[in-house]
Every structure is written in structure tokens, then in C-alpha cells.
């Protein structure tokens, strides 16, 4: 059973650019949640995808968008990057049959730096 | 609004017991998690409480009082490797699994 993977691990972008972050959910999990974690802060919920549809969204502007694919992997897209978007972006999968479905398994994260 | 409060920092000695408190005010409640996060790493699951009472798992225990909007994580026989941030998170009622997170409590364990 493979765990949650994310790519890339680190990324440096310039203000105004666009970025796509990728996440492969744990085998058997149908739900993916994305979080933004600034240094020294707790994770902030961006949105969640369940069976390819957005299933809840936090307080993030529309320039944060996402997708979930039929294999339940997911992408987070951020347009018009701002300096404050610099953070660790975490992906978590859940919903497997072999675990309590509410438990979230986190990937290692993507460290995004916007200059 | 949604609010979760935890102490920012705590320190304790190796071998001791430490209790990390969490209070919450949320629009709904479908359960409370505790996660451990070492610096530079992703959070890892420690416990889940949805009913009042104490859940024990090895050296770690978690307690919930829904009427008081209160939980604590109890760590026994502290080890140096327990130095980490401990995050409290609440599943807000609804069809999704949206988690509201506290800012985390940074625990330092001294020899």
C-alpha cells in the first residue's frame, strides 16, 4: 500500500506567476483535502475533493482552484501568485474502507516560495 | 465564527507527564483530532474523539468534553522524540470532512 505523495517537494516562483501542485492519494482513498500551512501556524483548509467534485471550501480566493481525477489524484492550482502564498502546501487523503474514513493521511508537502 | 485555542508553547522533562489543552467554538462538531507534527514534516494522526470521555493509546491519551468545548492530550513517560508541535483539529458538522485547525502547541522535552 503506497502512502500519499506530493510533487514537487520544493518550488520557487515569482510574484504573478501560476503554479500547479500535485498529490497522489493513498490507495483506496477517494477524498483529498488541501491545506496551506504558513511557518509557525496550523494548517488552513483550502478545499476538499470527493469523487472528482469539490466538497467544501475554506476562505481562499478563487485564484486557488483544484481538480480531482478518476484515480483520485488531485491538483492544486494557484494563479497570480502573491508573496503571502509562500507556505507549505499539504495534501491529505481519507475515505478508505480499511480505516476509519474520517482519518486523514498527509503527504510530505510542497514548500512553495514566492519571490 | 470558528475558533480553536491551544497554548503556544510548553516545556517538560523527559520521563514526566504533560497535558496539552484545546478549547473550541465551532459552528458544528463531528469529532476532534490530535495530530503530531515534527519540524519540516507532515502532521501524523494521534487520536480521534467524538464521544465524551478518555481514549487511551499507549503513552498517549485524549479526553473530550463536548458540553465544555474542551479536549486535552496527555503524554506520559515523555521521551526526547516527543518534542514536536501538537495540533488540535475539529471536524465541522456537514457533509464534508472540513477540519478547522488550531495553531498548534510546540512542546519541548528537556533531558
Give an account of the 3D structure.
The complex is a heterodimer of chains A (115) and B (111). With 115 residues, chain A is mostly beta strands. Helices cover 0% and strands 50% of the residues of chain A. Chain A is built from no helices and eleven strands. Chain A has strands at 5-7, 10-13, 19-24, 31-37, 44-50, 53-57, 64-68, 74-78, 87-94, 105-106, 110-114. In chain A, strands 2, 4, 5, 6, 9, 10 and 11 form a seven-stranded mixed sheet that branches. A four-stranded antiparallel sheet of chain A has the order 1-3-8-7, with no helix packed on it. In chain A, a hairpin with a 2-residue loop joins strand 5 and strand 6. Chain A is globular and about 40 Å long. The model of chain A has no long low-confidence stretch (mean pLDDT 90). Chain B has strands at 3-5, 9-13, 18-25, 32-37, 44-49, 53-57, 60-65, 70-75, 84-91, 99-101, 105-110. In chain B, the strands form two sheets. In chain B, strands 2, 4, 5, 9, 10 and 11 form a six-stranded mixed sheet that branches. A five-stranded antiparallel sheet of chain B has the order 1-3-8-7-6, with no helix packed on it. Helix content of chain B is 0%, strand content 56%. By secondary structure, chain B is mainly β. The radius of gyration of chain B is 14 Å and the shape is globular. Chain B is built from no helices and eleven strands. Chain A binds chain B through residues 31, 33, 35, 40-45, 48, 50, 55-56, 58, 90, 94-95, 100, 102-109, and chain B through 4, 30-31, 33, 41-45, 48, 87, 89, 91, 94-104.
Features:
heterodimer; A: 115 residues; mainly beta; seven-stranded mixed β-sheet; four-stranded antiparallel β-sheet; 50% strand; globular; B: 111 residues; five-stranded antiparallel β-sheet; 11 strands
